[in-house]
Amino acid sequence: MIHIGTCGFPKKRSAIFALFDVVEVQQTFYNLVPLETLLRLRREAPEHFLFTLKAFQGITHPATSPTYRRTRLPQSFRPENLGFFQKTEEVEACARHTLAMAEALQARVLLFQCPPSFTPSDEHVENLVSFFERFPRGEYFLAWEPRGPWKAEEIGAICRDLDLVHVVDPFYADPLWGEMCYFRLHGKGSYRYQYTDEDLLLLKKKLMGYDREVFCLFNNVPMFEDAKRFKEILVSLSQDSCEGFSKGPGERKEQSRDA
Predict the structure, then answer these.
(1) What secondary structure letter does DSSP report for 168?
(2) Helix 197-207 vs helix 223-245: angle between axes, to the nearest 10 degrees?
(3) Band of the pLDDT at 213, cuts 50, 70, 90?
(4) Which of 20, 75, 96, 175 is the most exposed place for a label (fewest CB within 10 A)?
(5) What CATH fold (topology level) applies to the domain 2-245?
(6) pLDDT in tens, 31-51
């Protein structure tokens, strides 16, 4: 099954809920969101709508990151103790609240996106491994999006050993590990890029090649329009397949191998 959605709410929530079946909640990355806010969001969404959650940046990003411009940190937090999966009380507190936010949303996936400055140094790898060995997994898929100069064999080994879903942009890389696939589409060369019909047909072919559950989240500026067009492509494909197989013997439409 392929779930299509957006990273955040580029349109009114009602429009997102009506058209897609998943959203990656972004506000949980920028702030420790009050749980009642997320409980309201869960109640507002259709019963079977899926949420994924971007983990709070206090776990992954140092306080020097420009992403903290929108962040309200507890006064007790020491900035130097944030980010890079450090074994500090601040990171532990961020992890506890991230779990509580995921529970409030009934999220399926917790995404941990790292900045490019989180390099594969011995210290960083040790921190990451220690963090996920302590982190209560529960029923969640834990997904990791590394950036920066990581080698494929390093990523694959870490994801395999810690059972992390490797998150990639499908136009640039293939996932190296995971019981499911989690794709984030950032635009080809720029967040402002709008995917062409040819791009989306190629994406359809690529995603249908996976024999597991797939989450496809658009994260470019025209994400709503592109996700809508991609869904229309998949729906059209499904309808064509049903129409072909609804006919009697000898009357079925010929189906392409890539359909």
Answers:
(1) B
(2) 60
(3) very high
(4) 75
(5) TIM Barrel (3.20.20)
(6) 999 999 999 999 999 999 999
Give the list of residues 6+ apart from residue 113 with CB closer than 8 angstroms, or none: 29, 54, 55, 60, 145, 147, 167
Cα–Cα nearest to 135, from 158, 167, 164: 164
User: Using one digit for the tens of pLDDT, what is the confidence trace for 95-142?
Assistant: 999 999 999 999 999 999 999 999 999 999 999 999 999 999 889 999
What are the beta bridge partners of residue 182? 215
Tokens 């999006």 correspond to 145
**Contact of 128 with 70, CB cutoff 8 Å:** no
**Confidence tier at 247 by pLDDT (50, 70, 90):** very low
Give the helix/strand (H/E) hosting 227: helix 223-245
d(CA 45, CA 50): 9
Enter the pTM of the model. Answer: 0.90
User: 182: closest CA among 11, 22, 59?
Assistant: 22
- Cα within 13 Å of Cα(54), Cβ side: 22
